[in-house]
Amino acid sequence: MAVGALPFPPMHPVAGITLGTTCAGIKQTLRDDLLVVEMAPDSTCAAVFTQNAFCAAPVHVARAHLSKSPRWLLINSGNANAGTGASGMENALSSCAGLSELVNGDADQVLPFSTGVIGEPLRVDKIQAALPNAVRDLAIDHWEKAARAIMTTDTFAKGASQIIDIGGKTITITGISKGAGMIQPNMATMLAFIATDAKIAQPLLQACLTAAVEQSFNRITVDGDTSTNDACVLMASGGSEVPALRADTPAYAVFSQAVLALCKQLAEAIVRDGEGATKLMRIVVNTAASDEEAARVGKTIAHSPLVKTAFFASDPNWGRILAAVGRSGIDNMVLEAVDIYLGDVCIVKAGERAAGYTEAAGQHVMNQEEITVTVSLGRGQARQEILTCDFSYDYVKINAEYRT
């Protein structure tokens, strides 16, 4: 189940980036579950990783290898290789070594990523056996195959792509993501792999990605759970004819805004595909004292099981929203300054039920598939938007049966 039909979009190939997939049979044998991505020599690479203290073995390895001029990504679905101790580290390193031998590279030039069930040993033997097929499959136009190979409980493949013009020359940005459950904004609770042909130094690429993630993947939540494995990678092959991007220039500003827009597209696709989701909610908090304050209020509403179940039932029980705002931990909140809207319907004015509010007006909004909740705090000029979805019966069923 997903909110809104999102067919896989046309994907622009990125010069210097190739992708290959195959079925290793890690958890299932019906579709590809192994992805290799190769970057051209002299590419730069940036990444951000989950803040979960029990981060998976591949996260530890990828963090360590990020400074070694990575040339390859190795991603498997079906097994998270998390909670697996020393043997998990050995398996992650062994996977990197297996790929490096095939491509005549160094093992520390491989960034590994895994997604799937936590606590089960990774079948490295299956990965090693399948790697030659994935390497033979490397091609510039395999973005959709790649998007499907990294899926777990996702119901559709997620991608976004754009070409921007800078001084009459072009830069391509193309990316994929996966995620539907265990999604909570705390770095990037999912996997996302984005490539560009821009020429850009690694420190600036890292700064660009970190800023984009904060306002995109860190602004979504499905269920309030931060995964052990999640990461977002931005690769730059340098294949564009646009001169090298530099900080504090108009060209970099255009590029960084394009990266942010693409990250927002991929993040929204994850929420639309939230496990069992039937509604997409945009929680907009404005006139806050700071971005942090606005985000805190928005996340408190978005994480509330009572709010999320009310939306699933299309029940305009606005008291649940009011209660979430009140418990968000904002110091010295002036209740009389707070206004709350469902769509364009004012439900709370100056801290109490709006005089003109009717249950019928609230019901009309709640019957919609996509709903905006706006909270005005009357404390400043800051504004943030959090994307979330409802909790349905299917969310419980999907997660109760996750390992069966």
At the first level of CATH, the class of the largest domain is Alpha Beta
Estimate the mean pLDDT confidence: 94
Taken from the alpha-carbon principal axes, the silhouette is globular
Which runs of at least 5 residues are low in confidence (pLDDT < 50)?
none
* Number of helical segments with 4 or more residues: 11
Report strand %: 15-25%
Structural class: alpha+beta
Q: Give the neighbour order of strands across the main sheet.
A: 13-12-11-14-10-15
What features would you describe in this structure?
By secondary structure, the chain is of the alpha+beta class. The protein folds into two domains: 256 residues, L-amino peptidase D-ALA esterase/amidase (4-Layer Sandwich); 121 residues, ArgJ beta chain, C-terminal domain (Ubiquitin-like (UB roll), Roll), CATH 3.10.20. The chain contains eleven helices and 15 strands. It has a six-stranded mixed sheet. Helix 5 packs across helix 6 and helix 7 packs across helix 9. The radius of gyration is 22 Å and the shape is globular.
Strand and helix map with partners:
Layout: E1 17-22, E2 34-39, E3 44-49, H1 57-65, E4 72-79, H2 85-103, E5 110-117, H3 124-136, H4 143-149, E6 158-166, E7 169-178, E8 191-196, H5 202-214, E9 231-236, H6 250-272, E10 280-288, H7 291-303, H8 305-312, H9 319-326, E11 339-342, E12 345-349, E13 352-353, H10 359-366, E14 370-376, E15 382-389, H11 393-400
Parallel strand pairs: 4-5, 8-9, 10-14
Antiparallel strand pairs: 1-2, 2-4, 3-9, 6-7, 7-8, 10-15, 11-12, 11-14, 12-13
Helix pairs in contact: 1-2, 2-3, 5-6, 7-9
